[in-house]
Specification:
A hairpin with a 4-residue loop joins strand 10 and strand 11 (258-260). This protein has ten helices and twelve strands. The mean pLDDT is 92. It has helices at residues 39-51, 70-78, 95-105, 119-126, 131-144, 164-173, 188-191, 199-203, 278-290, 308-311; strands spanning 11-15, 56-60, 85-90, 109-113, 148-154, 177-181, 210-211, 223-226, 234-237, 250-253, 258-260, 269-270. It has one domain (11-311): TIM Barrel, CATH 3.20.20. It is 29% helix and 17% strand. The structure holds S-adenosylmethionine (SAM).
């Protein structure tokens, strides 16, 4: 369906948990709150979202691989008629052990968050020595035959911006798209504009990268580049410097059962009271989608934002 600004909202990000096994510097992880939705509740809710026009679903968190019932959730969602793609966003720490089962459960694509290829920098950013596990996880995801394996990296000036070259080389040497996401104000670091490395500045460091035409214009928020001999692409997602809210197609289902129309504002509507009445559930979802704001106001109005773990990155 279209929201109040005529945008087609067809992409649902489902946060399965607020728990996380990392404590990333910029994520501003808060302590988990509220009950997590059960697989049955998630299926009921996603079915209703699909009836409003959602066709793409992403499972995220917190860290979704901490859910022991993740494969069951994935299989239930994948089996819903109308779900065209099911993707997963993970920090990759436990991915090596679960990649095969998740592929078999119907997950089509995986995004792995990886902000450093240097062990010491990775440990400082995330609070854990888990880089080797994450790299094994990416390898396992490639072996499991996901349609797409991507790496998302967030750079913070003075923390891990030295990692950009290694991350671009990772895209050169592996059939993996590496995308740089600009730091957003979901933590004190993100509110300090001096720490944000904008796409234009980063691109200057890689004059040999050439832009690729968008596959489906408007489909992706990332702008992709390549260079001779590269196996993967390099992408830039620039919510701060090149606001793409006018093309926003997403809505979020929080792990506690609220629907959140926009990443940048706290507004959320509890859907749990309608779980036993699909018509009223669809009405509540449609009301939330119609209420989507025009876009964020990063830089001037941070709103009452929460840590990404609570929102579902
Ligand atoms: N735990 C999973 C993971 O690490 O991919 C999924 C949830 S996590 C909140 C999703 C992703 O959101 C992060 O890994 C990071 O790429 C992105 N993210 C978190 N905080 C961010 C911020 N302040 N600015 C930009 N991206 C952020």
């Amino acid at each position: 369906m279209r929201d109040g600004f005529g945008r087609e909202v067809d992409y649902l990000r489902v946060s399965l948990t607020q728990r996380c096994d990392l404590n990333c510097l910029y994520c501003g992880a808060g302590c988990p709150e509220g009950e997590e939705l059960t697989p049955e509740q998630i299926e009921i809710l996603v079915r209703a979202f699909v009836k409003t026009g959602v066709s793409k679903v992403r499972l995220t968190g917190g860290e979704p691989l901490l859910r022991k019932d993740l494969a069951e959730i994935a299989a239930r969602v994948r089996a819903i008629p109308g779900v065209k793609t099911l993707a997963l966003t993970t920090n990759g720490v436990c991915l090596a052990e679960k990649a095969q089962a998740l592929r078999q459960a119907g997950v089509d694509a995986v995004n792995v968050s990886l902000d450093s290829l240097d062990e010491e920098v990775y440990r400082r950013l995330t609070g854990r020595n888990a880089l080797a596990s994450v790299l094994r996880g990416i390898g396992a995801a490639l072996d499991a035959g996901f349609q797409r394996v991507r790496v998302n990296a967030v750079l913070i000036r003075g923390e891990n911006d030295t990692q950009a070259e290694k991350l671009v080389d990772f895209a050169r040497d592996n059939p993996v798209d590496v995308r740089f996401i600009e730091l957003m104000p979901f933590s004190e670091q993100g509110k300090n504009d001096a720490l944000v490395i904008k796409a234009a500045e980063l691109l200057e460091r890689f004059p040999y990268l050439t832009p690729l035409p968008p596959k489906n214009p408007g489909e992706s928020v990332a702008k992709y580049y390549t260079a001779p001999g590269f196996k993967g692409r390099v992408g830039f997602i620039s919510p701060v410097s090149e606001k793409f809210c006018a093309r926003c197609s997403r809505v979020r289902l929080l792990s506690t059962g609220e629907v959140r129309p926009c990443l940048a504002y706290d507004t959320a509507y509890d859907l749990k009271p309608f779980l036993n009445d699909e018509n009223r559930l669809i009405e509540a979802i449609e009301k939330a989608i119609r209420s989507k704001p025009a876009g964020h106001a990063f830089g001037c109005d941070y709103g009452n934002i929460h840590a990404m773990n609570k929102i579902g990155g």
